[in-house]
Write a structure and sequence with these properties.
alpha+beta; 7-stranded mixed β-sheet; 5-stranded antiparallel β-sheet; 412 residues; elongated; 11 helices; Rossmann fold; 27% helix; Jelly Rolls; binds S-adenosylmethionine
Length: 412
């Protein structure tokens, strides 16, 4: 900055840039709105509607009555209040503002749940004990170093196969940009920290998480069991969104896994779960779950064959329903490409191919000892004999459909 004489004036802006500490922010809200309204307002956004969205998001990711949930920065209990209905669910909430947690604890009336003050970036939970570690609107108030350390700690606390669900603000969305300009123009607020997707991907990679989903905050993506009516009359029907973007990071379950070497073929944002090979058999199976969105948000799986082999590619949304997942893909469009990018096989809808192809696929899957074809026929299957080389499977939604799919590639 230059003063009127043209000289550069340097002043310490550290406290301004870091923003107001959250406890001070809460104290200010209480003074302004009164005790209860202040504590509810401290979490930002509507208390009930946002809590419902958070809970429904976890449900769509497999939340069950016996799940173990760690809610970092639980605030005044927006999520906990919705989770109180799950009698078998085990819950730990942490926060830097004890009053918010005291309010949450009272509101939930769950004497079996723990609410613990946050100390540094540690989580007072045993290693490998949690199914979910949530950061709803929390890393939006933390410096990146703290967020990264929290994610490392979350990785420790999660069971294999468990996931981190975090919401974040990013510059690419116009609705988030407004938050940024507001922060710029209103010095002294608490910190509104933005984070880029590349940073989340880099953090996940360094820690060992698979990036399962990155959902745009301004697009409905959370499956809703019933209409959600906001106090201003807005109705979310079918799907809703939090406003903030959401990342789902999965801790891989490598207990029965064997790695299949796959070339980096694209940014699919999927969890790769690799199933074990049958002892003594040369086959490998690559099993992946992921979300197929609209436009170019396709799922891409690359694989490399060291020797000629028969390969079955099968894609199913229905299989995931058995795992308690909703929001599955209704119709898929599957393409198998060779290393030159040529389409060598294609399947739309849930076609199993010709009867001869089906029979051959049945025989092949029986030979390698993996699951048989889905009898309802809601599975897309491609069977080809392939020469050694690199191949890519691309899965899109057919006729504009979106949702979760399971992709399996079996070679033998
Ligand atoms: C916007 S509120 C969100 C609360 C809650 N997650 C929800 O969605 O309703 C942010 C919360 O993060 C808490 N917080 C801020 N810094 C934290 C830290 N370092 N560790 C844990 N919680 C923190 C704040 O006290 C506040 O309750």
């Amino acid at each position: 900055m230059a003063d009127p004489s043209g000289q550069i004036v340097v002043r310490d802006m550290t406290s301004e840039v870091q923003g107001k500490a959250y406890p001070d922010y809460v104290a200010e809200l209480k003074a302004k709105f009164g005790e209860e309204a202040g504590l509810r307002a401290a979490v930002g956004g509507d208390f009930i509607a946002t809590g419902v969205l958070e809970e429904q998001l976890l449900r769509s990711l497999g939340l069950r009555d016996d799940s173990v949930v760690v809610d970092v920065g639980c605030g005044s209990g927006r999520l906990a209040y919705q989770l109180r209905r799950y009698p078998g669910l085990r819950y730990l909430g942490t926060d830097v503002v004890p009053e918010l947690m005291a309010y949450a604890k009272k509101l939930c009336g769950r004497s079996d749940w723990r609410f613990e003050p946050a100390s540094g970036v540690g989580l007072p939970a045993e290693s490998g004990s949690a199914d979910f570690v949530c950061f709803f609107s929390v890393i939006t108030h933390l410096p990146h170093v703290h967020s990264y350390r929290y994610l490392q700690e979350a990785y420790r606390v999660l069971k294999p196969g468990g996931c981190v669900v975090l919401s974040f603000l990013e510059f690419r969305l116009a609705s988030h940009w407004i938050v940024f300009t507001d922060t710029v123009n209103t010095p002294g607020q608490h910190l509104n920290q933005f984070v880029e997707r590349e940073a989340i991907r880099a953090w996940a990679k360094a820690i060992g998480f698979a990036v399962e989903h990155l959902f745009d905050g301004d697009r409905p993506h959370i499956p809703l069991e019933q209409d959600l009516v906001w106090p201003d009359g807005t109705v979310m029907r079918g799907r809703g969104n939090l406003g903030q973007s959401v990342a789902v990071l999965r801790k891989p379950d490598v207990s029965q896994a064997r790695k299949l070497e796959a070339p980096a073929t694209g940014d699919d944002g999927a969890t790769a779960r690799v199933t074990a090979a049958t002892p003594g058999s040369p086959f490998v199976a690559l099993s992946t779950r992921g979300f197929v969105g609209g436009d170019d948000a396709v799922l891409i799986n690359g694989f490399q064959l060291a020797a000629a082999a028969s390969v079955v590619v099968r894609v199913s949304g229905r299989r995931l329903v058995c795992h308690g997942l909703r929001n599955t893909l209704a119709r898929s469009h599957v393409r198998l490409h060779d290393a030159q990018g040529r389409v060598i096989a294609e399947n739309s809808g849930w076609a199993l191919g010709s009867p001869a192809e089906q029979e051959a696929a049945h025989a092949f899957l029986a030979k390698v000892g993996t699951e048989p074809l889905d009898e309802t026929g809601e599975e897309a299957v491609i069977l080809r004999h392939l020469e050694p080389g690199a191949y890519t499977v691309v899965v899109a939604g057919d006729a504009g459909t979106t949702g979760l799919v399971h992709i399996e590639i079996v070679a033998g």
